[in-house]
Design goal:
By secondary structure, this protein is α/β, with parallel strands linked by helices. It has 9 helices and 16 strands. The strands form 3 sheets. It has an 8-stranded mixed sheet with strand order 6-16-15-10-11-12-13-9. Strands 2-1-3-4-5-14 form a 6-stranded mixed sheet, with helices on both faces. The longest helix is centred in the C-terminal third of the chain and has 22 residues. The radius of gyration is 19 Å and the shape is globular. It starts with 14 loop residues before the first strand and ends with a strand.
Length: 346
């Protein structure tokens, strides 16, 4: 496949678009959102620019797409940041002006439901960035996590190779945004298990593709994934969300991708540390360990059946857990199973 184009990067002092292409949660949690905006200004010296639907819940998909098109078309905007994820960006994608997006490439940052836009930009030949959230990461209670901010800074401002750092602690039990006082105390953190490697000891290099596994399944069902050959040679990225999909569901999604011929084309797979707790599913510590083990077994089973020669790395901090490392979708990754190192080009 031809190499994807890295868009020009912003510089301190630039204007960046802050949009809600999925859920308009800034309307419900303005205190978290405003904290994230302050940190965007103070830590990165970037000037956030809001659009009509940024603080609107349940905005019409056509209006959200209109804001995305406007942000990409505006020459004074040098990056586009999603406030948070959601669940219906699949309805926004049909209204995007692909001519505008292709002609005005800009770094887009988002994850979870924003996998819709990340994969669309991939298909348009533009590198985009899986990770970063104004509410979740910039608005993190207490203070932003240093690893998240280090990765976000590098992804925002550099085109360099960046080695991913394994976290020594992680969190998946966030503070309750409904309580403004919760912003004063950091979230609870736990000792992080190290990365776990599976497969042959070799070095794989290729463009990254993927994102939230549940959202990928929606995109596939909507018929918005190209032929499997278009993704052959990619390093596959997968992580799961606060919906806590069962191991059976995870296996079935991957099985169906395998039947489509997608998995066989991936020489390496990066698997995010699974989030195993949510407010309506407050699993106990042992239940969390069992959930994570079952999900890993499901992924291992599917890859053994459809991509047995792939290099696989588990428990990367690349998804819905805290901290979060940014991945350039369409950008180059080097997965070194000999030295057990992962580097990405931002």
């Amino acid at each position: 496949m031809p190499p994807h184009a890295y868009p020009p990067k912003p510089r301190p002092g630039d204007r960046v678009a802050v949009l809600s292409p999925s859920a308009g949660l800034p309307a419900i949690f303005p205190h978290v959102y405003e904290l994230g905006l302050r940190r965007l200004r103070d830590l990165f010296e970037l000037e956030p620019v809001e659009y009509p639907t940024t603080r609107v819940m349940n905005a019409d998909p056509r209006d959200r797409a209109r804001d995305l098109n406007a942000a990409f078309a505006d020459p004074s905007i040098t990056a586009v940041l999603a406030t948070v994820g959601g669940e219906d960006q699949v309805r926004v994608v049909p209204h995007l002006d692909e001519t505008v997006l292709r002609a005005n490439p800009k770094p887009f940052f988002g994850y979870s439901d924003n996998t819709n836009l990340l994969t669309r930009l991939f298909d348009l030949g533009v590198v985009a960035y899986h990770g970063g959230s104004v509410l979740v990461h910039l608005g993190r209670p207490g203070s932003p996590h240093p690893l998240s901010m280090q990765s976000l800074r590098a992804a925002l401002f550099t085109h360099d190779w960046h080695e991913l750092t394994a976290a020594t602690e992680y969190g998946d039990e966030p503070n309750d945004w409904r309580d403004p006082a919760s912003l004063d105390r950091p979230p609870v953190m736990f000792p992080a298990t190290p990365w776990s490697w599976l497969g042959p000891e070799r070095v794989v290099e290729g463009p990254l593709w993927g994102g939230s596994l549940e959202v990928l399944s929606w995109i596939l069902q909507a018929g918005r994934i190209g032929p499997s050959s278009a993704y052959a040679g990619c390093v596959f990225v997968l992580e799961t969300s606060e919906a806590l999909p069962t191991a059976v569901e995870v296996y079935r999604i991957l099985r169906n991708m395998g039947e489509r011929g997608l998995l066989a084309g991936f020489p390496a797979v990066l698997v995010g540390r699974p989030k195993a707790w949510e407010f309506d599913t407050p699993l106990a510590p042992e239940q969390k360990r069992e959930y994570a083990a079952a999900q890993r077994a499901a992924v291992t089973r599917a890859l053994a059946e459809y991509a047995p020669d792939a290099v696989v790395v588990f428990d990367l901090d690349i998804g819905h857990t805290d901290p979060q490392l940014i991945l350039p979708i369409g950008g180059t990754a080097r997965v070194d199973a000999i030295q057990q190192r992962i580097t990405v080009r931002y």
